[in-house]
Every structure is written in structure tokens, then in C-alpha cells.
Amino acid sequence: MLLFIVRNSLPFMFAFAILGFLVPSASIAFFPFLPAVLFTLMTLTLLGMKQNELIQRLSTLGVWLYSLLHSAVLMAIVGGVGWWLELDGNLLLAMVAVAATGSLFATPAIVRALGFDSLHAMAMTIATTLVLPVSIFATLVLFQTESVELDWASYFTRLIVFIFGPMLFSFMVHKVTPDEVLGRFLLKISPYTILLVFAFPFGLVGSFRLLFDQDPMMALKYFGIATALCGLFFTLSYFAYRKQGKAEALTAAITSGNRNVLLTYSIAGALLGPAFLPLAGALQIPTYLLPVLTRWLNKVLP
Question: CA torsion 131→133→137→140, rounded to 10°?
């Protein structure tokens, strides 16, 4: 049964988003455990990568140009369209904050499940996370009127714990463990790391279900906006990188479509306004449908 789930992990991600929506009490109860799952996933994913190669990828201009597309360009587009449509201020703030958000830390595991370059996806994920403080600060300055007081200590603590901590741990393990021993260990566990990804759609969708129970029409509106945002991020990134090949374009698209809204909320909290958490919950359903869509596109696109 476990092997069946691993082989069909992409549709199961979407299924867990639906399950979290159907059982909101379990989803909300599981939400506090997501940081621990996040750390474990990052550590196991980084163990399977050579840190010197990851640093080399991070030092390339292309990765940082992608981070600008992922945040600044998409923030400008979302903000401009929202301003043109005269959207409610809280909703517009939430939408731009989503556009400012870095890629989900689970992205490399998803990219690996798709058969693409997970090392490149990891470099792009880290780059978009590192530019997040600037992006979210700009969002708050431009789209809300309260004094901007970001929780920098919390952000840098999480940055150390979830990125530099696992990188350092991976470096030390590679340094002291024979390649043959480490290789056998990773060969046994690597197929199962994708199971940890299921926790994110399950644990985050509960806030959207609460909105649905209170105001179904408003929830459907948020779901439509979340789907449009995911589609926008995915499509623009795909076409921006299409000339570099199908694999590169789909990697950029899925990396852009996945957004680490949990980390963004931990930094800015209530400054993001009352619309952010429901929108973040609504994002889980289209976000975890994207890997299934990407696998299909990989088969049908030339």
C-alpha cells in the first residue's frame, strides 16, 4: 500500500487537500505540527544533494533573475490588476502578499517526483525565500496603512532553522559519512520523503473551510481568486522559460505556482490583514493540483 501511494504521490497531494477541507477539525489540529514536518522534509531533501553543487547553483545569475520574476514582476502584475479592478484593500493586500511569497520548501520533492532537476528547484526555492523580507516589506508599505513592524527575529530564526540548519547538517553528514553508506540510506528513504508533502495541503486548507462554513459565496470568490493566482504564476513562468526547454519551463512554472504562505504569515502575521489566511487556505487546492497538471503537460507538450 505504501509503495502504491509513493508511486501515485502527485494525485495523493491533491487528495489530501480535499481531505483537509472535508475534515476541518483535523486540519486545524494538525496545523501547529507543520513547522516540524517542514524541517524534516528540508533536511531529508538536502541530504540527497551535494552542498557544493547547490551553492554553485545559487551563485548563478539565472537563479536570482528567476527570483525577481517570482516576486517583483508578479507582485507588480497582481497589484496593477487589483488596483484596476478596484478590489477591497484587505483582499488586494493578501493577493500581493501571496505574490511576494517564496516557493514552498516542498517544491524540490515535488519536482523530483516529476522527474526534473530537484537541485535547480532547491536553488530557486532558497533564492525566493531569501528575497522574501524585501518583497513582503514592499508589499506592506505599498498596500497597507498601518505602521510596518516586521518580526525580523522570527524570520531569521526560521531562515536558519529551515534552510541554513539543514544545509549545515547535510554538509557535516556528507563530510563524516562514507558515500556508500549514505547512498544506501538515501536510496531506502528518498522515495518516502514525498509523503511528508501531504501534510501541507492537509494542514493549511482548514482556514478556508472555516470561511466556507461562515460565508459560502465569499469562500467561492476566494477560491476563484486563488485558482487565478496559481494559474497566473504557473503560466507566466512557463512562457518566460519556454525557450530554455520544456523541463526548465515546467520546473520554473511549478516552482512559481507553489507558495510558502505559512512562512510569510509567520513573518508578517496580522499585518497581512484578515483576508490572508482564508486566501492561503484556498490556495492549497489549486496548488496541489498543479503537480498533476504538470505531469500531464510533460507528456503532451512537444
Answer: 100
